[in-house]
Amino acid sequence: xxxxxxxxxxxxxxxxxxxxxxxxxxxxxxxxxxxxxxxxxxxxxxxxxxxxxxxxxxxxxxxxxxxxxxxxxxxxxxxxxxxxxxxxxxxxxxxxxxxxxxxxxxxxxxxxxxxxxxxxxxxxxxxxxxxxxxxxxxxxxxxxxxxxxxxxxxxxxxxxxxxxxxxxxxxxxxxxxxxxxxxxxxxxxxxxxxxxxxxxxxxxxxxxxxxxxxxxxxxxxxxxxxxxxxxxxxxxxxxxxxxxxxxxxxxxxxxxxxxxxxxxxxxxxxxxxxxxxxxxxxxxxxxxxxxxxxxxxxxxxxxxxxxxxxxxxxxxxxxxxxxxxxxxxxxxxxxxxxxxxxxxxxxxxxxxxxxxxxxxxxxxxxxxxxxxxxxxxxxxxxxxxxxxxxxxxxxxxxxxxxxxxxxxxxxxxxxxxxxxxxxxxxxxxxxxxxxxxxxxxxxxxxxxxxxxxxxxxxxxxxxxxxxxxxxxxxxxxxxxxxxxxxxxxxxxxxx
Length: 495
Known about the structure:
Layout: E1 8-10, H1 21-33, H2 38-45, H3 50-63, H4 69-86, E2 88-90, E3 96-98, E4 111-117, E5 128-130, E6 133-135, H5 137-149, H6 155-166, E7 177-181, H7 190-195, E8 199-203, H8 208-220, E9 224-230, H9 237-244, H10 253-261, E10 267-271, H11 278-297, E11 302-307, E12 312-315, H12 317-328, H13 332-344, E13 361-364, H14 371-390, E14 395-399, H15 406-409, H16 412-420, H17 431-448, H18 456-461, H19 476-494
Parallel strand pairs: 7-8, 7-10, 8-9, 10-11, 11-14
Antiparallel strand pairs: 1-2, 2-3, 4-9, 5-6, 12-13
Helix pairs in contact: 1-2, 1-3, 1-4, 3-14, 4-14, 5-6, 6-17, 8-9, 10-11, 11-14, 16-19
């Protein structure tokens, strides 16, 4: 895929004069691998069809980091360094510089702030919307147990949520301002945090429909929403604010940095940005440049991310054993059908998820339909979390469950796979459930300073809400096609 944007954060020009996203992806992955896995770097650099061949190389990024913490840190640092060195910034007049020019570019003084106080009553206890109910107290505890026993979330996830439920005074995040990059994100925490009475600074595109929706969240909530607006603070109520609210991070990193510099108190930079295709890499690189700039200016900065479950993770031996038990206990019909399906597919369908006794195991839940740009954008966030945590920064990075978001459901293949996923032991969450669950994990991390394990893979695995993808009987991608087929069939039967 080629990127044709030339303003703001853009892909570098290839020798043939195109801005190739595939060339960028190959180069960044190869650069990340080279110090610890030269053969893997060479394989990535020589991959001819990056659009379909990227899957094995993103898995290798995880495998190559397992031997030591130093190896994992090297991959993260080299990958981030490569992205910063290779991505470009287009300026008015046609000049281009490296991404790091954004770290010192002057901030315009034309960004004002509107403060929107909520008018609702603060939610003073943790309650989780789930299947049409609001779960709290014992009902919430039972649901967490059900998810743990079913392999839907990690035990540490349930423990973290229970701790938040036991400390409702944590919910409004006293003393913190959460900066939500991608304030309108469907599974972002803005709406939930505002209901809990938190102070949130929102950044999203200058799109009136987006801001009208975010403003409604703020007005219904009990916290305070801070919004960047161009020029003087506008009048005219919510509609007037929405017309002048927002910043385009791809083009306005200095403006965003200048605006945030004026906010007092400790900041939590929550990276919830998303865009389709190549734009996702560009906006994630812009968000990362903003993060680095703010880290240099503020020593009280914390970072927050939502990791996608459709990625590659190292997982604990307990998850491997759970999956092995599920594989051994699968119904007789599944066992009879599995052998011919594996044979006819050349071993691609219904494979066991892990090598026996793996510790850690490698869960490869990458979905080819999401593409290499999505994989790279999400990996950049994981790398930043790893590097920042090693430097002593409080980091909240939690694996979110597969969720029926609009961006997923508009992809027919993914929507069908989600519809059939329950037949293989996975659970697809509704956005309302995911929002509250992940906001609770954010609150937990900020009050406990986040996880701190011996190896970065353990930090990533902590409190994961993967929807079962780590503990089902089969390697997720080996069941995806059948899940989609069953999902299509179910949809046709209901029609």
